[in-house]
Design goal:
113 residues; alpha+beta; Glutaredoxin; four-stranded mixed β-sheet; 3 helices; 17% strand
Length: 113
């Protein structure tokens, strides 16, 4: 079994439609995961980079949320239009896309280190 270089976690959590926080499932999370998986496979990258479903990551108000490990990069408000850029810039080239960063989550990460 090969070792994966990165995991791309895409939140697909569904909350009650009346939830004030909203949820990633209603903001395209499932479609994003399918798109990440397809695009990684088309580029023959799916054996070293894996797109996975995630449950609630406690950032619902920022949905749809994508987190990339091992770097721990948190992206919010992700849409289908962002998938290619995330793969190219962050997954392949380790660059952070500042307009998508969830600052609060990145701040939590840096204080926990």
């Amino acid at each position: 079994m090969s070792v994966l270089k990165k995991h791309i976690f895409i939140c697909e959590n569904m909350r009650d439609p009346d939830s004030p926080k909203g949820c990633c499932g209603r903001k395209g999370g499932s479609e994003l995961k399918v798109s990440f998986k397809k695009k990684l496979a088309l580029k023959l990258l799916n054996k070293i980079y894996r797109a996975n479903t995630a449950g609630c990551m406690d950032a619902c108000e920022h949905g749809a949320v994508v987190v990339i490990y091992p770097q721990g990069i948190w992206y919010g408000g992700v849409t289908m239009n962002d998938v290619d850029e995330i793969i190219e810039e962050t997954v392949l080239n380790d660059k952070v896309i500042s307009r998508l960063v969830i600052k609060e989550k990145m701040d939590e990460k840096s204080t926990a280190s």
